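ok so i was messing around last nite and threw this chain in just to see what happens. nothing serious, just curious
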Amino acid sequence: MGVASSVVGGGSPRSPNSVFQERRHDQNFPSPRCRGARHARPEPFGLPDQDKTEKTTTTTEQSQSTDAQNNQSSSSTETTTTSTTTNNPDTLVVQESADIPTLDPGTTYDTASGQVVENLYETLLGYQGNSIRDLQPILATKWEEEDGGKRYRFTLRDGVKFHSGNPFECKDAEYTFRRNLVTNTSDSGNWFLSESLLGTASNANDDKGVTWQKIVDAVKCDGQTLVFNLPKTDPAFLSKLAYTGQGIVDSEHAKKIGEWDGTEATWKAAVGKDLTGSPLAQDPSGTGAYKLLKKDATSVAAVAFDDYWGDKPSIKNVIIQKVPEPAARIQAFLKGDADFIEAGGREIVETQLKGKPGVAVLDDLPDTTATGLSMNENIKVKAGQEQQQIGSGKLDGNGIPANFFSDVDVRRGFVAAFNTPEYIKQVQRGKGTERNFLLPDSFPGYDASIPAPKFDLDAAKGYFQKAWNGQVWDKGFNLNVSYRSGSRGMQTAMEMLKKNIEGLNPKFKVNVVAKEWSEIIKASGEGTEAMVVTSWAPDYADPDNFVNTFYSSTGYYAPRINAKDAQIDSWIKEARSTTDTAKRNDLYKKIAERAQEQALYILMPGGVGYAVYRDSIGGVTAENYNPMYGFSQAGTLWKNLTKS
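result:
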């Protein structure tokens, strides 16, 4: 998976003045180092498992504790019924509402694209089983850390071929990473690679300190050993290499079809170049178990690669079809004409799919998203739009001042007025977990011993009575909050908050306003919204991808809601500069406690993930399910699936 927004994505801002679109897990909203997000052609969904039409995967609702992440086989549950229909066991059919923007790994930053790219291309490292902590070699066979974590040497796998027939060599990995550092488009996840290797998230157009020599020195071949040189230790570096967008490109094929030639003479012209429809996006050549057969506006077809170096796939063909109508997808699924579909949320799964002949459901899967309601501490008011944004602009019962949320007691009052247990009951059908921090509880760094914020209307009343030296309680306010039109989950969250706030004082007024997605994206990026839903899904499995994004004054969301805390900034900086896990965990605990004390966000509960599929499909298991994969319908690569 853009700009201060109201949905999930991955990444954080590349530069203070840049506007990006976000990613990860099909998030369609902007975010600084993303496409829109994951995590990107981000997806327009709000909160886990809240909307019938919001996510282009079947795992819209996800969550699990840290311990459960490592014990999914005992905590996940599976429901199946006897199939009454059959289809071709050689072909896997997936139906979704989203199109697939690109097949170029250099700009893949959304899960719709990522679910294909991760099967056509391979990275140096990948995740082991269902773990988001343990990495395993893929195109690398081993690696060595040197100079206190500032140098890594990777031994590469022999006997690997690209789909073109070209052999995989160190020069291909070198070309891939240099290409990613050179292009580093706003529509990619290469900001975090650049941050590790060049010390900046920006490309050479935005940061003149980025030079060809720095790029060459950062990644180079020593014979057939790939060497990375980092300006400083990055504890998340290895996890970043497992991201789909770092899939290794066939350099000879890429140059032959018109991609950047890899030389100093031409690198400047390639900086920031849009790769969405690049020659490589049209004619990919990776080392993955599948190769592209066909791609058009409504479908993608891939076929098993005969010369794949690893275990051969059981399923020969994979077809992903764009089917916008939910009813049509459900009908095809129930007939056995589709093996996986974008179901549209837990309610549909439980009321229309679960228990039907041929349908299997794997439930209680881990969560990798974090969601909160943001409170803008200094709303940017646009000329001529004052009334819509802040009303009178005063604490007189007819509006709010632009810095209404700068008073910590206002924020604390809103936090205490949100009924998280009721939200879990109403929206998540009881499948939810209260959170104490905007970090998935399945991630390292999350400390479950910290109490979550409590729903307490008496406490909320006390905070509002103190806010703005008593003026909030005495004079009241009129506040506009926004949600994406058609997003039932977002709407429910805002309406629950409205009811509780207005019930405290007849002078309090909260107006819940439905807006088009594009309007919210634009306004959020400009800092003109008072309150929106902010959500994130990971680019890489490290807590920094969330903590820096939400809480750092130079991250993604905090600058757009004008939240800044010097102590939190200091702790984040310290956590980013050490590989000591115990020390990092202690710092994240301090950040969580401080952020909660400062009431920086209204924390939404984590959900519980699930996968729904035809019972003729094998390989969808708790032991295999890894939420870091783009193909979240199964949580694993296509090559690991079977069909009977």
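not much to say yet. Confidence is low (pLDDT under 50) at residues 1-75, 80-86.
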